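Hey L., structure's done. Input below.
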Amino acid sequence: MSKPRVVVFDYGSGNVHSVAKALVVAGADVTLTADRSQALSADGLVVPGVGAFDAVMKQLNLVRGGDIIDQRLAAAKPVLGICVGLQVMFETGIEHGIETEGLGQWPGSVELLEAPMLPHIGWNTVEPAAGSMLFEGVESERFYFVHSYGVLDWKMEGGGPLRAPKVTWAEYGSKFVAAVENGALCATQFHPEKSGQAGLRLLTNWVNSF
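Output:
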């Protein structure tokens, strides 16, 4: 039986080599590339991201990353965003007074966390959504976060044929979105590739879902 083919989208941002190594352990056949055809044809696409929201969006736009993600989701082909790769899935990011348009897959804004000390660095527990696929078997584990910005509220609801996304929360000063599962599109604010066995289990759950 062949392994699922996963492309780690190497568009210029993100801890791509660590993510790739973790995905191999999770059972995937991994390619690091920004090639459009490979990104579209792979069984799964991982969109990493580190640094500023605005910089990540500029790099994604240079390779028409939003269009690739749109096409994959239209075909119900799995996409996983990590860290800023989660943040850019939202409508806007606001950093240092600058508002940047995101990919708009989900409504809402990425804003400065409401916490006494930033950045939020280190291990933290999460509150998984009921019926979560990603967190099956690691519901009570800790995951590794490095960020100062996040999504502080969630306004999207399912209606008609649409199912409401499964939203996992964490708390640091106040609650923020730690992960989202929304059909073919999943994303985590934390770094599963830096989260030890719990992170590997989460990535394995994702790889095994397609």
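The domain at 5-207 is CATH 3.40.50.880 (Rossmann fold). The chain has one domain: 5-207.

-- N.
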